[in-house]
Design a protein that fits this description.
- The protein is α+β, with helices and mostly antiparallel strands and 147 residues long.
- The protein has 2 domains: 99 residues, no CATH class; 46 residues.
- The chain is 40% helix and 18% strand.
- It contains 4 helices and 7 strands.
- The chain has a 3-stranded antiparallel β-sheet with strand order 3-2-5, with no helix packed on it.
- Strand 6 and strand 7 form a beta hairpin.
- The longest helix is centred in the last third of the chain and has 42 residues.
- The chain is elongated.
- 9% of the residues are buried.
Length: 147
C-alpha cells in the first residue's frame, strides 16, 4: 500500500507543524485524531488551529527533493515551496521566497506552449489557404486575359 504525506500546518501563519512523509509497504493509514495523539507538535495544539493537506503518494516528490523550505499559504490553502538560489553564496543564509511548486509551473508552461503551437499551426494553415486563394485568383485573371 502507498500512502501520501499529510502536512499539518498552523492555520494562521501557514507554518508546517508536522509532515508525516510518504509511506509504502506494510503501512496503515492513520486518522487525524491518531496523528494528534502521535505527534507532540500536534498534541500541544487545539485541532481548530491546525489545518491539514493530504497529498497523493508521489505528489510534489521532485519539489520536496529540491526545496529548502515550504509552507501552506493561509490565503490560498495551497502548498508553496522555496528553492535555493544558485546565484547566491550557499554559506550565506537566504530568506525563503515561497512560490507555487515548480512542477505545476512547468506543467502550466508546457500547456501554454502547446496552446501557442496549436494557434501557430492554425494561423499557418489560414495563411497557406489565403496564399492559395490569391494564386488561384491571379491565375483566373491571367487566363481571362485581364492581366
Amino acid at each position: 500500500m502507498d500512502i501520501g504525506r499529510k502536512i499539518y500546518y498552523d492555520k494562521a501563519t501557514g507554518t508546517v507543524l508536522v509532515d508525516t512523509g510518504e509511506r509504502s509497504g506494510l503501512v496503515v493509514e492513520t486518522t487525524q485524531e491518531q496523528d494528534f495523539e502521535a505527534y507532540k507538535a500536534l498534541a500541544e495544539r487545539t485541532p481548530e488551529s491546525v489545518g491539514v493537506l493530504e497529498l497523493e503518494y508521489g505528489e510534489y516528490r521532485e519539489d520536496f527533493g529540491r526545496t529548502n523550505g515550504y509552507w501552506v499559504n493561509p490565503k490560498t490553502l495551497e502548498i508553496e515551496f522555496s528553492y535555493p538560489d544558485p546565484n547566491v553564496d550557499p554559506v550565506q543564509p537566504q530568506e525563503p521566497v515561497f512560490q507555487k511548486p515548480l512542477t505545476e509551473r512547468i506543467k502550466n508552461v508546457e500547456s501554454e506552449s502547446a496552446g501557442m503551437a496549436l494557434e501557430l499551426a492554425t494561423t499557418q494553415y489560414r495563411l497557406d489557404q489565403a496564399e492559395q486563394e490569391q494564386a488561384n485568383l491571379l491565375l483566373s485573371l491571367v487566363e481571362g486575359g485581364v492581366l
